[in-house]
Amino acid sequence: MYPQYRYTPPPSKESDMTSLLSPEITTADSLTERCDRCSAAAKLVVSLTSGGELAFCGHHANRHREDIVRVAERVTLEEGFDWASK
Ligand SMILES: [Zn+2]
Q: What's the fold here for domain 22-78?
């Protein structure tokens, strides 16, 4: 037996965009982490929505910026670092 009414959620492009592209961005005086990719001093630390953290130097922060904003819950930038996605 089928239910009489089938609920179809309306397309919610706007709320999807918001949740995908707006990590909270904060700055710190200095970061002690090292880049996970190349071990240079980190300029950006990502707190992942899935838990855990990733650190990136300036070079890799910019190179992976699209991936970072997609998985980040919070982004911490070193003071003075000019991140392309900020
Ligand atoms: Zn790096």
A: Cysteine Rich Protein (2.10.110)
Cα of 17 vs centre of ligand 1, distance in Å, is 28
CA distances in angstroms from 85 to 12, 13, 17, 47, 62, listed in the order given: 24, 21, 15, 16, 8
Tens digits of per-residue pLDDT, 21-66?
589 999 999 999 999 999 999 999 999 999 999 999 999 999 999 9
Ion ligand 1: residue ranges with CB closer than 5 A: 35, 37-38, 40, 57, 60
**pTM for this model (two decimals):** 0.73
CA of 11 to the centre of ligand 1 (A): 38
